[in-house]
Design a protein that fits this description.
- The protein contains 13 helices and no strands.
- The protein is mostly helical.
- Helix 9 runs antiparallel to helix 10.
Length: 243
């Protein structure tokens, strides 16, 4: 009996301590590559907006939100007020409240300092990876930390590249590097679109955002996104989709 138990213990595979962390690193790398143009654009725009070198570096290091950075820089160029910038960034990044609520059950048992760290590293890309089904460790602290740190380092590195290139290659925005934003979100949204109601909400948001932009409606993206979520909820209830 003792020999049988010993044999089973020897044959049972052991999990390396860094396995979850390394899994997160590896799975985040493709998404890091996809935001290279985005990071370069954000870094160069910061310099062209009039920020100093260290202000530009600090923005990428502390804000750590690509869409919020680009919108803030765009509003600074147009001379928008502080309140307008704060309100715009709030609505653009409001989806992080939903991300946090979804991850709450999975990280609520962690100490506060670990939850705050995951909260800082939480991005659209990290949430997408953590939401994968059939992934046992996709919500573990080590996995989230590995994926989040990898994306943070990648974003910061690419932003530094943009900051360095701003003076040597002016007007990087004319090369339409912002298309990488669309490409990145497509790679995130498509795998997560598994319900008809979700698809309806996406199509609605896409069409209305183009319409509102065409008629120069302020807050077109925010209005289109919020209305798309409402349409998706109603569609889900009408079709009685299961959660």
């Amino acid at each position: 009996m003792a020999n049988t138990i010993l044999d089973e213990a020897i044959q049972k595979p052991t999990t390396p301590k860094l396995k979850g962390f390394l899994d997160g690193v590896i799975e985040m790398l493709p998404l890091c590559v996809s935001v290279i143009p985005w990071g370069i654009l954000a870094g160069s725009m910061a310099i062209q907006t009039g920020l100093s070198f260290w202000q530009s570096v600090g923005m990428s290091a502390i804000v750590f939100a690509g869409a919020a950075q680009l919108v803030t820089l765009g509003l600074l160029i147009t001379g928008a007020s502080f309140i307008t910038i704060i309100a715009s960034v709030f609505f653009i990044t409001s989806q992080h409240l939903i991300y946090g609520l979804n991850l709450r059950k999975k990280v609520s048992s962690l100490p506060l300092k670990k939850r705050l760290l995951i909260g800082f590293l939480l991005t659209d890309e990290l949430f997408a990876l953590s939401s994968k089904k059939n992934q046992r460790d996709s919500s573990s602290f080590k996995y989230l930390l590995g994926a989040g740190c990898t994306f943070y380092i990648g974003w910061f590195t690419f932003s530094l590249m943009g900051i360095a290139m701003a003076n040597s290659i002016p007007d990087l925005n004319k090369y339409h590097l912002d298309f990488s934003i669309i490409a990145t979100f497509i790679t995130i949204i498509v795998p997560m679109t598994k319900k008809t109601s979700t698809l309806i909400g996406i199509i609605w948001s896409l069409l209305t955002s183009m319409l509102f932009a065409y008629i120069n409606l302020e807050g077109a993206i925010v209005i289109a996104g919020c209305s798309g979520m409402i349409i998706s909820v109603f569609a889900s209830r009408i079709m009685k989709e299961q959660k």
